[in-house]
Predict the 3D structure of the following.
Amino acid sequence: MKRVTFKNRSVDIVGNLHLPAGFDEGRPYPTLLLSTPGSSVKEQIGGIYASRLAERGFVALTFDPSFQGESGGEPRDLEDPAVRIEDIRCAVDFLMTQPFVDEERLGMLGLCAGGGYAIHAALTEYRFKAVGTVVANDLGAAFRGAQPHAELLDKIREIGRQRTAEARGAAHRRDPWIPDGMSEAKAAGITDPAVLEAVEFYRESEYRHPNSTNRLLFSSWARILSFDAFGLVPDLLIQPLQVVVGGRRGSTGQYEAGERLFERSPATEKDFFVVEGAGHYDLYYKPEYVDPAVERLAAFYRRHLG
């Protein structure tokens, strides 16, 4: 693995290049760019998939988004879909300067919310020759649909009030993405299995990482709630598509989002793969579910990237 940096305008983006065994910088390789979930850093889900794909002969880049992890940018903990997508474009620019990257064999892999960002980037980023997703979600649609319309409008008003307060000197508001641990989740009366599985992975497992703050800048919601990842898919997504979902449905809506993406894609070469028994977060790190997903993805990328 090699640590790398590149720029999104004035912001330094920090990434990890996962390299195949026997890597030779003088020869070209099929290369994959990974886009990670909201709140996640490059060492977590992105690192799990990147390392496994590198074992199968691909160069794989995963990186921390602007404002998060080791990457720069202020204010911290901002989740801005437009910037996340520009991060992806800048990562492609960086890869195009590397002598070992074959520009005709570049693929994209998006994970969870990163799947929505990956698809949106690929709509006008045809340097990607093949696009894959795992438990992809359209973050905007997911959160718009998670609450009654009246509550959604109240939240938008609250965002405005918070921005006004911050403009007048108040501290930035940062809320947890999920409870900080199982004890907090139980104290809050949370019983949703998906939320508890997220807490287990991000806050209680060996994959917990100090650079993952589990904080979301509250004003991010204005950007998230207006984001539409899949709207232009029928018009602009021309690349071969591999959609991977977990067979166990739940409140994240990953299965339904994957179906929607697959159905909307006009690609003549597309595949919908269900990992039976897997829930959303099982496909983050559990080998019995990750391994079949990676095998399906590797076969897909070999077909279309050589």
About this structure: DSSP finds twelve helices and ten strands in the chain. The longest helix spans residues 149-167. The mean pLDDT is 97. The radius of gyration is 19 Å.
